[in-house]
Automatic annotation (TrEMBL):
Belongs to the GMC oxidoreductase family. Residues 275-289 form the Glucose-methanol-choline oxidoreductase N-terminal domain. The keyword Nucleotidyltransferase does not apply. GO terms for molecular function: flavin adenine dinucleotide binding; oxidoreductase activity, acting on CH-OH group of donors. This is Glucose-methanol-choline oxidoreductase N-terminal domain-containing protein. It comes from the Eukaryota. It comes from Cytospora paraplurivora. Its cofactor is FAD. SUPFAM superfamilies: FAD-linked reductases, C-terminal domain, FAD/NAD(P)-binding domain. The lineage of its organism: Eukaryota, Fungi, Dikarya, Ascomycota, Pezizomycotina.
Length: 643
């Protein structure tokens, strides 16, 4: 794979972004030897890098040249904090640096996509695409082999008893403890597969699973270190008055030299697969977006669509770490020794990985739980939920009236459908309103989103971060200048102003999000980690126990109404976002806020599609990677059918 050349060659399809979706598209489209495909990736090829391949090293790529190193604008609901977040800037995209969790969305979530006006995008249809993505085997858990796909997925071996302790705890609470992770309906504890090859114990991702087998095809060309600046269109427009995409302009780096103004042409289509942050950015730089915004930046308006870059969605999450009890270490091993770079722990982990075992062979975060609104099966829980809904749900998604800057262009039809869905989820005893993740060790963050170092000392920890399954808060991502620029990822995070990009997720701008997170934080701190057996017996139950920074001394600091107020304050003080960005080029009817139609075609122009997480009209229940793969598989079928 070579860097971009200076010549202006022509291809049938030009794919912008060699990430999770773009590589799937390239692999599938070039199955036809008569179709010529070009993929342009801004980052490098790191398929041989151990930071990519060794599962537990996934956090090591954040803040490097393999990361776009984005940062949000100041978040008004989070005391003005600016939060850093990684996005993959390498071949394979975020599938090369994420936590590898293979989580399919819920059936109800995907079915809503279709109900919003996207025929053929329901659970029954997209499930077929999921099956094309994964090959899954579980030698230890009672799950049948699933799928016949390209990505290898496996559930890691349980070399400690804490996963079983987790399951036993939920069983003791009367919740299911052995869910099928592929079912589309999960309540209670669940062990998720990871995209780890069970034979080699290395990451299985877009670049090595989809691209490597296709790389010898003469009809596939991949350029790395090639950042696309804008899409090019024919002039004049076609007979219908719509601009026609004809290629792209890009900047490449080769041997330390930057070459600007280069071009490649597309005989059939340009396909943007740059992700939920960069795809709307590229549309706006190309003249597709809100006309007033584009004119203010002296960008000629080709398509006036005020919804480009709107409807930005992400899961908010909060950290919760608890010190383990004295004597709990045996059988409840943690990864804190690795976090402290203890020589003995490092040596043992390396030795175990040589046997394809141990903490380096997995993400150490696949054991989780999907939970409904706390106590929803009781009359008291139902009354609590009704009070929450009565006090929060009338606040609009587009402007909550109390948080300055929390605006987002949302149509009444979309907002009504969204609120109806959220209500149905919260009222259901079998739908997830929050996800409890687990890490056998310290897992916390600094206020600006970086990994927080483990406290000094010899204490060990068990962490239960809480993720909001279905946020109502909506944000935006928009350009602030008329030309693309490359972040200086070798040194530090590039500020949005330097990138010419403003990312404003409006975290917790809707009060319902705060309420749901606070009540799940209350459950974790005051029930699960304090009284629920057997888990609570493995955690230190005293006011002197070390806990997450900003977490009040415990146990049961969040119990009762006063405790719930403390939980709300803790949520606002510590919340940040997951890396599950979606929605900025939503697949919706244009009048309801859409940027692309169900065929992934950009409204108002010809020969231009978007295929990545930006087209999700609603953020998935949990991690987005599996759904991105499935969307790309389905997108490839759609494109092939249109040839």
């Amino acid at each position: 794979m070579a860097n971009a050349s200076s010549s202006p060659p022509s291809f049938d399809y030009v794919i912008v972004g060699g990430g999770t979706a773009g590589i799937v598209l390239a692999s599938r489209l070039t199955e036809d030897p008569n179709i010529q495909v070009l993929v342009l990736e801004a980052g490098e090829d790191l398929t041989a890098d151990p930071r990519v391949n060794v599962p537990a090293m996934w956090v090591q790529l954040s803040g490097t040249s393999a990361d776009w190193c984005f940062k949000t604008s100041p978040q008004q609901a989070l005391a003005g904090r600016e939060i850093e977040f990684p996005q993959g800037r390498l071949l394979g995209g975020s599938s090369a640096l994420n936590s590898m969790l293979c989580i399919v969305s819920s059936k109800s979530n995907i079915d809503l996509w279709a109900q919003l006006g996207n025929d053929g995008w329901d659970w029954a249809s997209l499930s077929k695409s999921f099956e094309k993505v994964y090959s899954f085997q579980s030698p230890t858990l009672p799950l049948a082999e699933r799928g016949d796909g390209t990505i290898q997925a496996s559930i890691p071996e349980e070399d400690s008893k804490w996963p079983q302790i987790w399951r036993d705890t939920f069983e003791g609470l009367g919740l299911p403890a052995d869910n099928d992770p592929f079912s589309g309906t999960i309540t209670g504890a669940v062990s998720y597969p990871e995209t780890v090859d069970p034979k080699s114990k290395t990451r299985s991702y877009a670049a090595n699973a989809y691209l490597s087998p296709a790389s010898s095809r003469p009809n596939l060309t991949v350029w790395t270190s090639a950042q696309v600046d804008k899409v090019l269109f024919s002039s004049p427009a076609n007979e219908d008055g719509e601009p026609v995409a004809t290629g792209i302009q890009y900047t490449s780096t080769k041997d330390g030299q930057t070459l600007t103004g280069q071009r490649a042409t597309a005989r059939r289509e340009v396909i943007i697969s740059a992700g939920a942050i960069n795809s709307p950015r590229l549309l706006e730089l190309s003249g597709i977006g809100d006309a007033d915004r584009l004119r203010s930046l002296d960008i000629p308006v080709l398509v006036n669509n005020p919804f480009v870059g709107e409807n930005l969605q992400n899961h908010a999450l909060i950290p919760l770490s608890f010190e383990t009890a004295t004597g709990a270490e045996e059988g409840f091993e943690t990864i804190d020794g690795l976090s402290r770079q203890d020589p003995a722990a490092l040596s043992a982990a390396m030795e175990a990985y040589g046997r394809q075992a141990g903490p380096l062979s997995k993400s150490n975060s696949n054991v989780q739980a999907q939970l409904p609104f706390p106590n929803i099966t009781t009359e008291e829980g139902k009354r609590n939920l009704q009070r929450v809904l009565d006090s929060t749900l009338q606040v609009t998604v587009s402007d909550d009236g109390s948080t300055p800057g929390a605006t987002n262009k949302t149509t009444p039809a979309y907002e009504a459908a969204l609120k109806s869905y959220i209500r149905s989820v919260l009222e259901s005893p079998t739908e997830s309103s929050a996800i409890l993740m687990t890490v056998p060790g310290w897992a916390s963050y600094t206020p600006d989103g970086k990994w927080a170092p483990i406290p000094a000392g010899n204490e060990t920890y068990f962490s239960i971060p809480v993720l909001l399954s279905h946020p109502l808060s909506r944000g935006t991502v928009h350009i602030t200048k008329s030309s693309a620029s490359t972040p200086d990822t070798e040194t530090s995070t590039t500020k949005p102003a330097e990138l010419g990009l403003e990312v404003n997720p409006n975290y917790l701008s809707h009060p319902l999000d705060v309420e749901i997170l606070a009540r799940h934080a209350q459950f974790v701190e005051s029930v699960l980690a304090a009284t629920a057996a057997p888990l609570a017996t493995y955690l230190k139950q005293s006011a002197s126990a070390k806990r997450s920074t900003a977490l009040p001394p415990g146990p049961r600091a969040f119990a009762g109404e006063e405790g719930l107020d403390r939980a709300r304050a803790y949520v606002r003080e510590t919340a940040l976002g997951a890396f599950h960005w979606t929605g900025t080029c939503s697949m919706l009817p244009r009048e309801d806020g859409g940027v692309v139609d169900p065929q992934l075609r950009v409204y108002g122009c010809r020969n231009l599609r978007v295929c990545d997480a930006s087209i999700f009209p609603l953020v998935t229940r949990a991690n987005t990677m599996s759904t991105v793969y499935a969307v790309a598989e389905k997108g490839a079928e759609i494109i092939k059918a249109s040839q």
